[in-house]
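INTERNAL AUDIT FORM
Audit reference: QA-55
Scope: verify that the stored structure record matches its stored sequence.
Auditor: D.O.
Record contents follow.
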Amino acid sequence: MNLKPHFSRFLESDPERLHFAAHSHHPWPDVSYQAHQRAWEDAARLMDDKWEHVFGVVVPSARRLVAGVLGLSDPETLVFAPNTHELVVRVFSCIEPPVRVLTTDSEFHSFNRQLRRWEEAGLAIADRVPVAPYESFSDRFTQHSRAGVHDLIYLSEVFYDSAMVVTELDRIVSSISEERAFVVVDGYHAFMARPVDLGAIQDRAFYVAGGYKYAMAGEGACFLHCPPGYGMRPVDTGWYAGFGELETGVSQQVRYAKGGARFYGATFDPSGVYRLESVLGWLQDEGITPVDISRHARSLMDRLVASEALPGKRVVPADAVTGNFLTVELDEAERVYRALHDRRVITDHRGNRLRIGFGIYQDEEDVDRLAGILEALRAAA
């Protein structure tokens, strides 16, 4: 798979740079540049009427594309927002506090920070299931989810700090005994990185992800799948959640749009949705699926592992199902990260874990260059 020409603007901006952080800020393909321009041109051409175009053309197209990737039967269950934090907070607002939360010890900073603050404020009581040991995680989490004492159950499909995949997501969700409990799956490290099929749980679980990582669309393009019957009237709400009600007068009760639109906030920059729609449309036209993306990333990952240049110890077992990045544990993770950065190699680290990501904008030559640099660093240590 040689898709480098489709990323020419990002790659040619610094030809010597090696970017191995697809799990963080994924480079944008060139089609997103034209999409960004269209957003500007539509604003100039349509002025105040642009929102009819955004909600009548751009958003429905983006919804259909996202729904197709996720195996959703109804694109109308999807809503867009500038970030996932805004969407998760809106889901939380649907539940009467104190909210009893079941989650893990490996959720991304955004949710973890907010949950800790809710706990401090007496708005939440959290039970955190350790992700490790990875082999028994699904059984242990399922045991807790069957207890029937939680109002909100939140877990990642791919954990950001290890790349471990929750392969039994359907079983975990179906095992939740409390029918009123809200279930939120964080799919940010799974969406467009690996095949995801929500068909079996689409009526039970929320699913949140966005464009900053493997969807290659940058910031401002996040979305939430909203199952019917859950959170019909979010307390945290913006005027776009009642967009169709603006000209019908004021009612005694706050009205909400149908489908996922009930979770809209207020005015946002739609350019991210333009970019997301263009990237997913391009991939569809090229016949590139998440299966293809995952297979390509895995081949590059295996090549780096086979070179024996990888520093530290892999966090998850070698035969485990993982996302599209490698996580290694080493005492000097920050030093190695900075040494790589000084040599124009972009990775990242979380504590003592170095993360190395892979994507369709890379090829075998890039991996070989990275392996050579890692070997040189080891020899100089």
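Auditor finding: record pair retrieved intact. The chain is about 35% helix and 15% strand.
Action required: none
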